[in-house]
């Protein structure tokens, strides 16, 4: 059978008994991003401005955003039509939608997924989340559009997180600390954020494995060193790691849980501060930190900020300390 005429599974061909996808993400090459722009412009699709996007189009029943990073986000009631009729045959030449269990059978095996949130934000803690799920859960989540939290609005993240937690048989565990404890632990771990994050991942993973023990797990890689693996004492459990692991639906679910938990902690911090606290660590976050400093003084800054951030020093009018040069032999005997 010709690849371009490959028969699709029932849930993609229009079977009304199966819920259609209303969102889809895919990594494109730079050439494919350009090709997509030319294709949709040629069809006369209206464009719009989206931060960090090379192309953004509004089609009939579908919205398309192709980011500079190559990540493509498709949303809308006609997502499947766009992917089946334009994206796959005209742009990628690969037929993936509807063939997830053929192309990625490991997604549907019982396994753990780990991701974090808050690492790059001046305000709020770093949250680790671990989710343990199997194939039936993954199918349900994929149908409902659960995906990498970085492509989802805050309001939708809260609803998705609740949906994940309500899934029958799922295991969801998180690990984080209050801001005072976070800053204390950062110093305790030798002012090394990756080591602190690894400890948090270890906590959430071990808590999850006490409830259910799959054979393996996948961690969204944040360090080339196996920092989290040392916390796993069970040699039969295989903790794998790679970058861009959120394409695995279980890791994507963990990313949603982590971000929703971070948002909840941020809400509590805002109530304590009596003001809104911006995300990230850019100009808006710096301005908010400077205003907190003037209002509350330096002694209370650790209640809200990650004090090792350069932005925290600048907000208080201080010069950030010079980072020590990395020494590959540090800690070796």
Strand order of the largest sheet: 7-6-5-8-9
Mind telling me the C-alpha Rg? 22 Å
Distance between the termini: 62 Å
The percent range for helix content is 25-40%
Shape, principal axes of CA atoms: globular
Structural class assignment: alpha+beta
Largest sheet: 5 strands, mixed
Mean pLDDT rating: 87
- Which consecutive residue ranges, at least 5 long each, have pLDDT under 50? 1-18
Topology pattern, helix = H, strand = E:
HEHEEEHHEEHHEHHEEHHH
Would you write up a description of this structure?
- With 333 residues, the protein is of the alpha+beta class.
- It is built from eleven helices and nine strands.
- Helix 6 (154-165) crosses helix 9 (249-273).
- The longest helix has 25 residues, at 249-273.
Q: How is the topology of this model organized?
A:
Blueprint: H1 10-13, E1 23-27, H2 30-42, E2 53-59, E3 62-67, E4 71-75, H3 79-92, H4 100-103, E5 111-117, E6 127-133, H5 135-144, H6 154-165, E7 171-175, H7 179-188, H8 193-209, E8 216-220, E9 238-242, H9 249-273, H10 283-296, H11 310-315
Parallel strand pairs: 5-8, 8-9
Antiparallel strand pairs: 1-4, 2-3, 3-4, 5-6, 6-7
Helix pairs in contact: 2-3, 6-9
């Amino acid at each position: 059978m010709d690849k371009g005429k490959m028969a699709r599974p029932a849930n993609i061909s229009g079977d009304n008994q199966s819920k259609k996808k209303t969102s889809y993400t895919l990594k494109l090459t730079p050439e494919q991003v350009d090709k997509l722009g030319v294709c949709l412009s040629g069809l006369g699709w209206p464009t719009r401005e989206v931060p960090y996007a090379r192309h953004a189009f509004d089609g009939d029943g579908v919205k398309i955003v192709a980011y500079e990073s190559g990540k493509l986000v498709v949303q809308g009631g006609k997502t499947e039509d766009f992917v089946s009729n334009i994206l796959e045959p005209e742009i990628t030449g690969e037929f993936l939608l509807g063939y997830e269990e053929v192309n990625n059978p490991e997604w549907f095996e019982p396994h753990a997924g780990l991701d974090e949130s808050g690492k790059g934000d001046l305000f709020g803690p770093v949250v680790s989340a671990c989710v343990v799920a199997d194939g039936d859960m993954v199918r349900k989540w994929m149908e409902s559009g659960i995906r990498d939290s970085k492509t989802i609005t805050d309001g939708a993240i809260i609803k998705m997180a609740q949906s994940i937690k309500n899934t029958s048989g799922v295991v969801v565990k998180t690990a984080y600390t209050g801001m005072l404890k976070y800053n204390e632990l950062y110093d305790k771990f030798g002012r090394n954020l990756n080591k602190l994050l690894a400890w948090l991942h270890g906590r959430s993973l071990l808590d999850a494995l006490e409830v259910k023990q799959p054979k393996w797990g996948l961690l969204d890689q944040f360090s080339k060193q196996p920092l989290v693996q040392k916390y796993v004492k069970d040699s039969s459990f295989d903790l794998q790691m790679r970058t861009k692991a959120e394409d695995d639906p279980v890791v994507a679910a963990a990313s949603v849980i982590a971000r929703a938990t971070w948002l909840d902690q941020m809400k509590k911090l805002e109530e304590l501060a009596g003001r809104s606290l911006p995300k990230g660590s850019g100009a808006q976050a710096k301005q908010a930190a400077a205003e907190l400093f003037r209002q509350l003084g330096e002694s209370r800054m650790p209640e809200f900020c990650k004090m090792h951030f350069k932005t925290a020093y600048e907000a208080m009018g201080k010069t950030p300390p010079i980072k020590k040069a990395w020494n590959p032999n540090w800690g070796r005997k």
